[in-house]
Amino acid sequence: MVYFDLSLEYVLFGCFCVSVPLYIFVLVNLALVPKSDAALGSSFFRIVLSTGIADVLTAIQTYAYFKFRFWNVAFDFYSTIHPVLKYDLIISYATTFVQSFGNLLLGFNRYTAMVMPTRHAVIWSSERVRIYLIAKWLIACVIVIPGIFLELSDLTFNRVPDDGNATVNGVATATLQLLMVLQGFNKWYRAQAVAVDAANYIHPYFLLSLSAALRNRCFPCISKEKRATIAPIEVQPISTVEQPSIINHYRWSSELHLN
């Protein structure tokens, strides 16, 4: 018998319901930004958009594949679609690799901007960024191809009664599945659950807090651009006494140039 405390899971699911729609909203706004935009159309935000898609997919697949089954949501449904869940697991690992490659590109992008500013525009030209992003997704897909041929046995849970006690059934024949199960029930599960969820959808909060251009794009009514104001300058009139001297000065200058 294993005891499951789902109180933290419910809190994390509440954060999921708020953060993922916000993340999707931010990504849609980034996707609609024209390339001519100097701030949001830069290579950095193009990488953010690509990596953000992987973040959202990973967050949704984490709940769809593992956590909903863990809570006994749609118990009969999950017990009949194991082949589908196998491929969903493989896709989730592919999106996880995309996240890692995307974070690597973001770090290198900021490095070149600070250390190699003269070559930054060449390294992150529009054509090269497109190649980087395509390669990121292709490499992740190639890495998980062997997982398609793995024989993953079904892993089911008995229904969890009100006291939180349940029996874990099933035998994991693949190391990948076994590691996932062991990590799910070790003593560090709480910290791991928070870390995994935060890694998937904490990015929009950082982006909105650090980028004024993105805030103005997503929430134009809340984040109003500050308009520059020019203080009026008081013009001092030229006295009649000083006027002849100024006229004589310009007359002397013109005569000098003519001569």
From TrEMBL:
Record keywords, A-Z: Membrane, Transmembrane, Transmembrane helix
Could you read off the lineage of the organism from its UniProt record?
A: Eukaryota, Metazoa, Ecdysozoa, Nematoda, Chromadorea
According to UniProt, the name of this protein is G-protein coupled receptors family 1 profile domain-containing protein
Q: Which Pfam families would you find in this protein's record?
A: 7TM_GPCR_Srv (PF10323)
- Species of origin reads Plectus sambesii
**One cellular component GO annotation, for this chain's record?**
membrane
Does the keyword section mention Chloroplast? Answer: no
Where does the protein principally reside?
membrane
Q: Where is the G-protein coupled receptors family 1 profile domain?
A: 24-150
Instruction: Output the InterPro entries linked to this UniProt entry.
Output: 7TM_GPCR_serpentine_rcpt_Srv, GPCR_Rhodpsn_7TM
Q: Which SUPFAM superfamilies match?
A: Family A G protein-coupled receptor-like
Q: Which PROSITE patterns match?
A: G_PROTEIN_RECEP_F1_2 (PS50262)
Where in the cell?
Membrane
Q: Which residues cross the membrane?
A: 6-32, 44-66, 90-108, 129-150
Q: Which Gene3D superfamilies match?
A: Rhodopsin 7-helix transmembrane proteins
